[in-house]
Amino acid sequence: MTKPPRKPSKPLLGEADALLRSRPRRRRDPDQPNLPLDPMPARIEPCLALLRAKPPKGDDWVYEIKWDGYRLSVHIEPTGIRILTRGGHDWTHRFPAIKLAAMWLPVGSAILDGEAVVLDEQGRSDFGLMQQSLGGRGGKKSSSDAIFMAFDLLYFDGHDLRKSELDMRRHLLGDLVPAGEQGDIRLSEQIEADGDELLASACELDLEGIIAKQRRAPYRSGRLGEWLKIKCVQSDGFAIIGYEKSTASFGGIGRLLLAARKGEQLVYVGGVGTGFNERSAAELRSQMDKLIIGNPAVDTGRKRNAIFVRPELVAEIQYGGWTHDRKLRHPSYKGLREMQDNARIYEIA
Fold first, then answer.
1. Which family does the similarity line name (predicted)?
2. Known active-site residue 66
């Protein structure tokens, strides 16, 4: 065991054997301002990505993989952890593993922006698996399978970072959530590559697409163009307005009848009869049976064996494009969107 240093037998002396003393501390000038800390926002509206057909060009853009899950913000506060959905709903209790991981991050206060996802066996995010882990739309289960892919840092130890450039925010985020770690909070890594080549690689791996971000842009809430999304396949939300019955299909659902928004109205855009499994069809049928109405909310044309419902459910549909008469081409059902996730119905221009 190391011994404590002995006290000097004599005081330290300077020139002319004068005692060495520190300078007396000045009193603080009351006119000198304190350096204030930024108040921690209770909630920040997320920055949203604009859809584009092709990746942008230029060195000002960096790329990430597009994750297919639930957009969340993780608030690390002196009083505890809060996990908020895109719509501002508190879902802390539904992501206990992410909450626990946030408690171990080496920071006193922070707001992380990212996406909760469930990965399949190939490591790809799967929206259907994400929903199943939460017990389906309207379910009350907590997800033990979801992980949080962090892609931005908005607040850090008393400092609001939204006016800082993306490169600075990402630098601090990388110190907080190091690349390559495999915990329940992981870094969504940036990729500096040619956008067209990266998109092609993402599509070959059956990923949803890529996100392009301006490296020098501040963080601005809304869909303003600093972030762009480029998809391998089109996927959007459509209102369910009914279904056609079938005794040979899961849940007795032959086809879902779908609508998009045009101005203040809903318009019929066709139906979808693929993408269901026994579990998702049973969940759908249970939800729709609570919403049955006598007449369709929009004109669907003549339909046999159709049951109509109030347009309160939003289905995420993957599709290959549009027909000449504005119906969905090759649609496939992916799952139901949550209202807490700001379920958005596709708008026809």
1. Belongs to the ATP-dependent DNA ligase family.
2. yes
